[in-house]
Amino acid sequence: MAHRSGRMVSLVCLPSLLIGTAVGVVRYSTFHRHRSNPVASASGQLRSAIASVHPLLAHSRKLLQQQAQVSFAAFSGGRSSEKEVALTFDDGPDPEVTPQILDILKQEGVPATFFVVGCKAERYPELIRREADEGHDFGNHTYHHFELTDLDSIGVRVEITRTNEVLEGIVGSRTRWFRAPGCHYTPDALKVIRKCGMVRVDTLDNSGDWANPGVPAILRRTVAHLSPGDVILCHDRIPQTVKALPRLIHTLRKRGYRIVPLAQLALEAQSTPGFRPVIWPRGEGVQIQAIRPRLRSNLLVPKPLLRHRHPANRSA
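RESULT FIELD:
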């Protein structure tokens, strides 16, 4: 799954001014209006103020509650009695492509899950907020987009937790969905993913758009691999995907498919008697490999130096 990976710049997460404003409103209101029961009043006022100043918080927490009901350690889809699929995008947010993808999804009324790269989310928080505001879900795609096969257990944990912290700082909640760059894993990485409480989400229908094969090729591959219950993998940094997406959505609908949120697909599968998720999809690039010792401790390098390190991945 080779491609040229762009240089990723690590940014320091900015504090949430909106939350701070909400807390200030609560303190003023509590002191002047509810002196008789300051603790209870402050709690209620805080919830109201945060909801009004930061409406994305309720949405993101609702999504996390849905994810918390998923008991699978891994879910890449699986055959379903319903003609439903979930649409996912990796590698964003991208300042040029992601807004165009969002425009199409909004016009078509289609939900999606965006597996975001943490350092890019820090750089373009307004796109993360827009994704949440328009009803989409989030997945964790590591912080630097490093191949997990280049990292030891500490490195994998840092990549996961930093990205979740970024999401929490922007929309108020983290995610349980996780997909590794390239869908490449090591035995140690799989253990860390489980210990972090994440659900590994790969794909049963890899569009192959990362290789820029052309719009017809993207459509042919996606439709050829299509089955009920699939998790479809695309990228919101590929201009060709923008051109292919409307045609893909229309083709899915003509074939009788509904595009549903990832959590809905997983929970419906989970409630189906006898359903077993596909753990290692074949032919979609999902791999488990041994670690490459030469970069085993790369995340133990001081953070300023990480800004100048180019990930050696060739991933999705």
